[in-house]
Amino acid sequence: MILSSAVDAEDTALLVDTIRAAVGRTDPADGRSERVYRDGPLDHDLWSVLGREIGVGALAVPEVHGGLGTSYATVAAVLETLGAELTRVPVLAGVIAATALAGCAEHPFARDLLEQIASGTRVVTTVVPGDEFDSPGEGTFQVIDGDDGVTLAGRAEFVLDAAVADTLLVHAVDRYGALGLYAIDRTHLTVEQMETTDATRGLARVHAANAPAVLLTDRPEPGRVRDQALVALACDSLGVARTCLDAAVTYAKERVQFGRAIGEFQAVKHMLAEVAVAVELADSAVAHAAWAVDAGSADDLAEAAAIAALACSDAAGLAAATNVQVYGGIGFTWEHTAHLYYRRALSSSVLWGTADEHAQRLYRLATGRTDREGDTPSPEPVREPAVALFATEP
Length: 394
Hints:
This protein is an alpha+beta fold. 49% of the residues lie in helices and 14% in strands. It is built from eleven helices and ten strands. A hairpin with a 2-residue loop joins strand 9 (256-257) and strand 10.
């Protein structure tokens, strides 16, 4: 592993350059569309370099467990870089898993998993908990107590990198309604790779039927795991947004139409300016979220995660769509990477909640409302009927 000491803010730029160079050698932009659909959502060669040689998995793992224990600002920069390159490696899944495991590192198996994540020798993913865990006794997976030990039953969809993971982490409830964090070996699960819009990201259906499991902790923090998952995904989306903006600006300066660079036309300028504003807002949201992960309270993190998820999702969607539009005809071709970024933005925008859901959650956090505690939901706003763009007089 190249990384052998904690990376601070001054070294982040060098680390990012190292990752970009590795991606450029192993998975260059030229021909990427063909490789994505030919090789699937895991680039084994690139993962060997990033996971084992460079050791990016160690960044989010505490130093006492074989990791580097860097600040989340460095983790965010790496995730942004990997998102910008549309890398097909399980780093995002590893960061989320390290978050879940850090809260139960006293368990021997959890320590082993953290060390293997850091060394890149084991892929660990997490069924990211949703709102169902806001109410005790609810959950996707159920614990079954038997003579042969603890087993789990349940199913989940859109599980990140489940088809290539060695171990899955799931939150499950027992017959008494107690919540716990469990580890399951993938060989005990039925995993079905899903065909989704985004071919650069592996998502799968997972089904457990009396699957042997290991209880890692009976005091999990599903809310923190979910919030840090949203922050990590936001970093990925920021990378997509920034890359699409840079590509569109570069092309607008070079592409000549009617004797002028298309970037000189006011319509193109306005489109790109709108994207630039969205990217700057997303960048600020991610910086705030990184602070919340390292030093904020649980309430700070929940609010920052919702803001980052909302801002970065919007920025990535707008930037990817604008990039296709600026490139024009070539942007719609299968060989160009513009459609891959658009697909990644679409996938991220709904992976662990939509923009509307994040906005509603942010409203509840800001106002202190909790509908699950008995508050009456506010009525739907009255919407005026839309006026047709090309309405004619009767």
